[in-house]
Every structure is written in C-alpha cells, then in structure tokens.
Design a protein that fits this description.
Layout (H helix, E strand, L loop, with lengths): L4 H32 L3 H27 L5 H99 L1
Length: 171
C-alpha cells in the first residue's frame, strides 16, 4: 500500500491524539482512584482492567487507522502523545476534571434521590397495605398465643405432675 506524506502526517497526528486520549483516560482513572481510595488488591485488579480496556481501544484504533499495518513510528507516537498530555495539559485539567466529577456525582445522587422519592410515592399505597397486613397478622398471632396460654400452662402442669409421680414410684 502506498501512502503519501500527507496521509502519514495525518496518521501521526491521529496516533498522537490517541495517546493524548489515553492520557486523559488515565487522568479520569487517577481521579476516580483518588476519590474512592481502594485497597491494594482492588487497585491491582482495577489497574489491570484499565490497561486491558485501553490496550483494546488502542488496538482497535490502530487496526482501523492503519488497516492492520504496524509501523515503528505509530508505536513511537502513542507514548509521545501521552507524554505531551501529561507534560502540558494534565496539570491544568486535573482539578477541573475532579470538580466536574464531583458535580456529576452530585447530579446523579440528586437524580437517584428523586427516583427513590417517585418510587416511594408510587408504592405508598402498597406499603400502607403491607403495613396494615403485617400489624394485623402480628395482632392475630399475639391473640392466638394468648388463647393458647391456658392450655400450655395446663400441659406444663400435667407433665410436671407425671414426672413427680414417676419419681416417687421409682423409689
């Protein structure tokens, strides 16, 4: 396959942009870890999962951009794009990204609470019916136990008398 210099330059820019994108994703991941503070094992597993996802995305992009043709400069400009991002953009984007993540988290928490409120309003009549049935059942069980209490005490008395009678007859 023959390519022109302009196509190679475009490919270099795309691979460098891909490296910048991987750097941005790493900043996302770093901020997520900063917020959650996972333990050692989950950090190792999440690191492995992150790099597997990134390598799959990079492989797909390489396959799509170069049509499966791997050249040295494509492998060289991917880390160059990451280095450019970490050197020039990451220090300025980290705190706004962290604030953005906190804002998104607050929005999601607000939406979740709104959903819970809507569900509680929707299921309130059913909760009330369950509450009434539960307390009615507890009342009936208590009433049944009260009705059985004299028979239970009578049975205990009979068992005690029989055991005393057996104890006297064996002597």
């Amino acid at each position: 396959m023959t390519q022109t210099v302009a196509q190679d330059l475009l490919l270099v820019l795309m691979i460098t942009g891909l490296g910048t994108g991987v750097g941005l994703l790493f900043d996302f991941y770093r901020l997520l870890r900063r917020r959650t503070r996972p333990n050692y094992l989950s950090t190792q597993l999440c690191d492995l999962l992150f790099w597997l996802i990134c390598s799959g995305a990079v492989f797909y992009a390489f396959f799509w951009l170069t049509e499966g043709e791997v050249r040295f400069f494509t492998l060289l400009f991917l880390p160059a794009g990451m280095a450019l991002y970490f050197k020039f953009a990451s220090p300025y984007l980290r705190e706004p990204l962290y604030s953005f993540f906190l804002f998104i988290g607050r929005c999601l928490r607000f939406l979740f609470r709104g959903l819970l409120f809507c569900l509680s309003v929707l299921f309130y009549p059913f909760r009330l019916a369950v509450w009434v049935i539960k307390y009615a059942f507890q009342f009936l069980c208590g009433l049944f136990r009260l009705l059985l209490l004299p028979f239970r005490n009578l049975w205990r008395l009979i068992r005690r008398r029989i055991s005393e009678w057996r104890g006297k007859s064996k002597k």
